Amino acid sequence: MRTITIQMINDFKLKKLKYDFAGYTFDKTNQLSFHHLIVPKRECKVQNIPSEGYLYWNGAILRQNTSHDYLHTIENYDYDRFLAITSELIDENILGELSIESLKRIRDVLESFEREYSGKRTNKGNLIIKESYVRDRIKL
Fold first, then answer.
1. Cβ–Cβ contacts within 10 Å for residue 107, how many?
2. Helix 69-77 and helix 100-117, axial crossing angle in degrees, nearest 10
């Protein structure tokens, strides 16, 4: 795990909270990963951003196999909703804490996406919204 990820886990007290920046629960910190917020990893070299963009101001900590993967799925299907969630994650980063209000706004966007895409499948026949994407969230 990258030093920046460990630092953000500690600074945001995620071990105590037991949920990530999007309100997804986790059991062990090795389930968490750094998500690039403002400058995607693929753009960092082009823009001369050091450390492949693994910088505090450019990150949120998400559970890899749920919120992180789900956010990228949303990015592929509904970029506006992806940006709405990203905006909330940026606000949490700037504030230095995970607020219930922000988590509720993220939940609203997720539920809106789920209403629209529930039961829909990818070109390969897989469900767009996996069960774990809707199951492992805190109760608000």
1. 18
2. 50
For the record, the structure tokens of 34 come out as 């750094």
Task: Decide: helix, strand or coil at residue 75.
Answer: helix
The residue-averaged pLDDT of 106-121 equals: 97
Q: Measured on CA atoms in the order 76, 79, 84, 90, is the torsion positive or negative?
A: positive
Residue listed under structure tokens 């995607």? 40
Are residues 61 and 33 in contact, defined by beta-carbon separation less than 8 angstroms?
yes
User: Token pair of 105, please?
Assistant: 């706004």
Kindly report the backbone phi and psi dihedral angles of residue 47, in degrees, each rounded to the nearest multiple of 5, phi listed first: -90, 10
pLDDT of residue 140: 84
CA distance 12 to 93: 9
How far apart (Å, rounded) are the C-alpha atoms in residues 13 and 106?
A: 19
Alpha-carbon separation of residue 10 from 1, 13, 41, 90 (angstroms):
13, 5, 23, 18
Residue 107 per-residue DSSP state = H
73, 7, 70: which is closest to 34 by C-alpha?
7
Whether the pLDDT of residue 35 is over 90: the answer is yes
Element (H, E) at 61: strand 59-63
